[in-house]
Amino acid sequence: MLEALSDRLGAIFQRLTSRGRLTEADVNDVAREVRVALLEADVNLSVAKDFVAKVKEKAVGADVLASLTPAQSVIKIVHDELVALMGGAQSRLQFSDAPPTVIMLVGLQGSGKTTHAGKLALRLKEQGRRSLLVAADIYRPAAVEQLKTLGRQLDLPVYSEERANPVDIAKHGVAEAQRLGIPIVIVDTAGRLQIDEALMVELEKIKAAVKPKEILFVADAMTGQEATNVAKGFNAQLTITGVILTKMDGDARGGAALSIFAMTGAPIKFVGVGEKLSALETFYPDRLASRILGMGDVLTLIEKTQSVYSIEQAKALEQKLRKNDFTLDDFLDQLRQVRKMGSMAEIVKMIPGMQKMMPKDLEIDEKDVGRVEAIICSMTRQERRRPDILNASRRKRIALGSGTQVAEVNRLVKQFEASRQMMKQLGGGKRPRLPFGLGR
Question: What's the pTM?
Fold first, then answer.
């Protein structure tokens, strides 16, 4: 998402850096190119114009043009304006003083409301907040059953009624949460293919009946400017308090992420980044701005690492490295832990400067990771612990068992042995540095 915009801005600032001192004409040229880049990313026209005007106003100041590093100053201005464009600081969920806190999810049909009701419930459960899911979408076929399935997966209760209207279902659901002492109620409401009066009237009645603390608009990021236009319509009728932007891992221009706050005043609170229930991330404007400008996203990388890797695991790995006892079993475990963090391509983008160092046409094929896993899984326990016993016949058997070529088996073993030698040298003196700074 937003990769094309990142590439365009990177090229613009690269040319800017090579010019040394800047003139007002240089800034005007850059501003014009930035505006085109934003429009190509499907950012709303008025938002793009306003953004560029603010950048120009600050960039043509005497302090910037006379500075020794004017290009870096302009890049910082663009970064800061991107952050402001997306709402500034991170926006957190608000909770009621007197429970239950009611969270109402609204949006068009197909935007992912029901799925993200489950994702949000899981996230809150991991924080120690139990939720009651309320199935108030009685129109979409299987919507109620889908929510019940999610409830079973999450071990959370789901409230539903047959032959009742959505307003009563929502009201009774809140009453049920009060009776059970559940602090959070997530109301999954109906959508339509487009905004219509009947939908809005129903949502307004639900809002009046349950008085939600949060009204979160669920928008499909793949729809670009249309998501922004729909958000404006919902905001005009309901005064939404935040946005969940889904499919942010998709291959689209992503202008909704840069337009929706400016057009509605409602901050993006979460982004959906995959199909799994755990694939919901808190939205940080500053982190996305840094990634757009090729600066990486170290904080998110650290959080992802901590979510799959404990301090105890890090210490155990350090001991293995020190004793040169790191085996292919350990390597396989590390590989699987890293895969839990997401795609290799996304992880690389989070490392500052790495994206600029990589060739433009480089593609990280996730299938390669799968092949490595298949090769190791085709080895016996003894072979994983002692790769030195892998003679020609054993390697042929492993290749057949993993559906790969002998050359691929040879390459993996060679790379692993080279890594072990490096670890042995580090273990002899300098303390080894673990992946992503773990165990420091």
Answer: 0.68
